[in-house]
């Protein structure tokens, strides 16, 4: 195995093409440097330098070997830098789970952008999940952080509230509701309501169902959409109405009109989930970025 120290000596001599100057840079006496280069040449089986009493030049083999030696040393230096960042918690991997209704929010995109800029050596993996699975994946370590609208059922998961997001009505542009400036739950109750599947244990579904119960308005269940985009597509197709977070309005689907709700309590939770016992430096850093983004938006 090649000695990294000897490779550094070779690189320095190749840059200086003078053993005396190279020795000064390396804080060595010239004779030991000469011996180390000779030993490296013996290991390699070819001469690296042609030497006379006045000049030093790279041999053809030395010129060919130089970029490989430089590449090895650069990789070693990079490994040392990354090791330091890993030790400091500024490099590594972070798995972020989220529900589809959050992915459209400015908070989501701004937080990810800021985090990626601040921690370029962190590999951030994004995983879209149903609410019912999100907490379990945070608890067992498959996810480091979860962005959800559903409070976890396990003590192994901590939930931090990021506030609430207003709900708006998504209606077909052909519907009479599209001509209203605002709509009420009573008006919406005349139409099938498009929701996520029951097996998603959706936090958004939960908020909507609680809202209907609180206002004593009958909920007429309609088709099922497995993503927020599919729910909006069903609305556009005239299959019903939907209550969605206001960030969904960024989906400017043809045939869909968004209208605010009369009910002031028409909101959905926004939560960040972390494992109670496994918080690391990167998790704390991500939470800091979320907090900063929220503060900027207020």
From TrEMBL:
Keywords: DNA-binding, Transcription, Transcription regulation. Residues 2-59 form the HTH lysR-type domain. Signal peptide: none annotated. It comes from the Bacteria. Pfam families: HTH_1, LysR_substrate. One of its GO terms (cellular component) is protein-DNA complex. One of its GO terms (molecular function) is DNA-binding transcription factor activity. Coiled coil: none annotated. Belongs to the LysR transcriptional regulatory family. This is LysR family transcriptional regulator. It comes from Pseudomonas extremaustralis.
């Amino acid at each position: 195995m090649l000695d990294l120290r000897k490779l550094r000596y070779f690189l320095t001599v190749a840059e200086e093409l003078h053993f005396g100057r190279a020795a000064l840079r390396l804080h060595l006496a010239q004779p030991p440097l000469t011996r180390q280069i000779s030993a490296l040449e013996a290991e390699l089986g070819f001469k690296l330098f042609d030497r006379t009493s006045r000049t030093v030049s790279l041999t053809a083999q030395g010129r060919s070997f130089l970029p490989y030696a430089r590449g090895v040393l650069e990789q070693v230096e990079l490994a040392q830098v990354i090791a330091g960042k890993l030790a400091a918690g500024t490099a590594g991997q972070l798995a972020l789970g989220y529900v589809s209704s959050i992915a459209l929010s400015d908070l989501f995109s701004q937080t990810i952008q800021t985090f990626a800029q601040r921690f370029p050596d962190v590999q951030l993996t994004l995983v879209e999940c149903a609410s019912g699975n999100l907490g379990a994946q945070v608890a067992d370590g498959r996810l480091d952080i979860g962005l959800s609208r559903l409070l976890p059922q396990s003590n192994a998961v901590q939930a931090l509230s990021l506030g609430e997001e207003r709900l708006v009505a998504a209606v077909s542009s052909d519907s009479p509701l599209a001509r209203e400036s605002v709509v009420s739950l009573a008006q919406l109750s005349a139409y099938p309501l498009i929701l996520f599947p029951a097996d998603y244990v959706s936090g958004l579904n939960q908020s909507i169902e609680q809202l209907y119960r609180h206002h004593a308005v009958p909920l007429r269940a309609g088709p099922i959409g497995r993503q927020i985009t599919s729910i909006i597509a069903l609305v556009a197709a005239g299959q019903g109405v939907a209550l969605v977070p206001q960030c969904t309005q960024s989906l400017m689907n043809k045939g869909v009109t968004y209208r605010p709700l009369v009910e002031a309590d028409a909101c959905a939770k926004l939560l960040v989930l972390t494992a109670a016992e496994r918080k690391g430096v990167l998790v704390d850093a991500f939470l800091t970025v979320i907090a900063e983004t929220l503060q900027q938006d207020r």
